[in-house]
TrEMBL record:
It comes from the Bacteria. The keyword Nucleotide-binding applies. Keywords: Nucleotide-binding, Nucleotidyltransferase, Transferase. This is ATP adenylyltransferase. Substrate binds at residues 67, 139. The active site is at 137 (tele-amp-histidine intermediate).
């Protein structure tokens, strides 16, 4: 058995290194408080170029962006520009556009990735699992038959087959007009 450098005692396991996940684990770039001025990434992302922020599409009151820490390739977030925490805080125009963007996002994900299904939903509040509870965002997670395997359960690792910038390009090109 060949010794693996830098892993401690050799144990025969192959390792998939995901150093980009350390930022998520450490909570880097998380807001320091509940306000828009407290470093909210969903308030900052739309201020920059689409490619840099992984923005797939912009609307009047909402935008679609790739999740920086996706569950699956093509994991989209639909976010209002306005800094609100709860679905009930959206005005009628924002709620309608969020729904329309969710529909268009599903079409783009299916066209661009060949997804056979999707999970769509919101985690409202920290206790519900929201990573950034102060700014509402709807998840669209593409799914395929057999896309769950032993890696997340045994290895606490998710294998992503495509770079985020490449996924952003595919979904932007697949967005319905």
């Amino acid at each position: 058995m060949e010794e693996q450098q830098g892993v401690g005692t050799p144990d025969g396991f192959q390792r998939l290194w995901t150093p980009h996940r350390m930022a998520y684990i450490k909570g880097e770039n998380k807001p320091t408080g509940p306000g828009a001025a407290d470093g909210c990434p969903f308030c900052e992302i739309p201020k920059g170029p689409d490619e840099e922020g992984l923005v797939v599409r912009r609307g009047e009151g909402v935008y679609a962006v790739l999740n920086l820490y996706p569950y699956n390739s093509g994991h989209l977030l639909i976010c209002p520009y306005r800094h609100v925490a709860d679905y009930t805080e959206l005005d009628d125009a924002e709620a309608l556009e969020l729904a329309k963007f969710t529909q268009a996002g599903l079409i783009a994900v299916r066209r661009g990735t060949g997804a056979q299904g999707a999970n769509v939903g919101m985690n409202l509040g920290l206790v519900a699992g929201a990573g950034i509870a102060a700014h509402l965002h709807q998840h669209i997670v593409p799914r395929w038959g057999g896309d769950t395997n032993f890696m997340p359960v045994v290895g606490h690792t998710k294998v992503m087959p495509q770079l985020l910038r490449d996924t952003r390009k595919v979904l932007a090109e697949s967005w319905p007009e």
